[in-house]
Amino acid sequence: MNIVVTGGAGFIGSNFLNLLVPRHPEHRFINADKLTYAAHLGSLESIADRPNYALERTDIADAQAVRELFQKHKPQLVVHFAAESHVDRSIHAPEAFITTNITGTFNLLQAFRELPQGHGVLFHHVSTDEVYGSLGETGLFTETTPYDPSSPYSASKASSDHLVRAYHRTYGLPTKITNCSNNYGPYQFPEKLVPLMILNAAEGKPLPVYGRGVNIRDWLYVEDHCEAIWAVIHKGRIGETYNVGGLSERRNLDVVQQICALVAEETGQPLAQVQGLIRFVEDRPGHDLRYAIDPSKVMRECDFRPRENFESGLRKTVRWFLENKTWVEQVRSGEYRKWIEKNYSARA
Ligand code: NAD
Ligand code: TYD
Questions:
Q1: Protein residues with CB under 6 Å of any ligand 2 atom
Q2: What pTM was estimated for this model as a whole?
Q3: 163 is in which domain, residue-wise?
Q4: Is 149 helix (H, G, I), strand (E, B) or coil?
Q5: Which of 68, 78, 245, 266 has its CA 20 to 30 A from that of 313?
């Protein structure tokens, strides 16, 4: 089958392709990616020359380009990862989030609808638990938790989820949605908490913790997320939503402390010296206090079980970032340095 994977050069998309392209030579994977700052083709080196993989540079906000791509490849399956994905960037400059996450998703749905009868077997939409807003100290997000997004990023993802559901109900488009908790692992762009802290700790740079570090995120190793998506594609029910998580809640400060311990151990630096880099900085506006997923539906209906726990996954991730210096240097381009200056100079 022909599978269009949007955003396949980003963090989760590249992990998805690296896992599935070698495993499924019977499928053709077409990576439709605009190649924004968040993309890196070096993340796809191991599959770039495989006969069942192709890159089609495409901006999903360009309706005509999406239509042409779908007419050319006639995908039976679309796995839609492409998005602007960083909450802090959405606070500074929300426009691209509206264009890519909302209009881009709309363009994909329209083009999928226009495929010849019988071609479009499934549109799988990859989303986030941030659409549900913030939890208090107790409770878990389920698939029926009301949407209550806080940031321009989560509001744009909520809009895209609503569009996908509307296309299923109105036009009978075969769709599924997964809403996943925070991912971490290889190839994550180092603007996000885990890779930023690993690299700064290794290089003796400040570790900027927003507010008092008491916000809680629910962490899932990226390959577990990719396996969950593949399981939902095959075993989930059409028109349904599945929340994906690994029952792994952690306070941000505890995550940072754990990263300090692992980096100290792996690099031989004294732990106190690494911990001494922690700085409490100005909080994020509208900062959601707590996210936590109830994954019982995806576990029950799709036999999903995460392979990594937070400790094993974090150790792998720390080692990966310490060992892949060329990848790190390549993604920290001029644009990256400008972002770090803009976001952190104001908070110091
Ligand atoms: P990312 O920012 O690392 O990668 C996004 C990719 O999309 C990049 O390759 C980028 O070039 C591409 N892209 C951006 N705009 C595009 C456009 N207009 N046209 C085509 N391609 C475009 O993001 P990620 O962390 O890999 O997230 C992938 C998806 O998973 C997103 O939809 C995100 O909302 C969702 N998600 C992420 C997490 C997480 O923790 N990272 C958790 C749950 C859900
Ligand atoms: P992030 O990785 O940006 O993911 P998200 O906002 O989508 O959850 O941030 C994870 C948590 O870490 C979030 O509560 C904000 C916090 N954070 C910091 O404390 N310092 C930082 O430098 C960053 C990037 C995030």
A1: 87, 182, 192-193, 196, 208-210, 215, 217, 252, 284
A2: 0.98
A3: 2-181+221-245+287-307
A4: coil
A5: 78
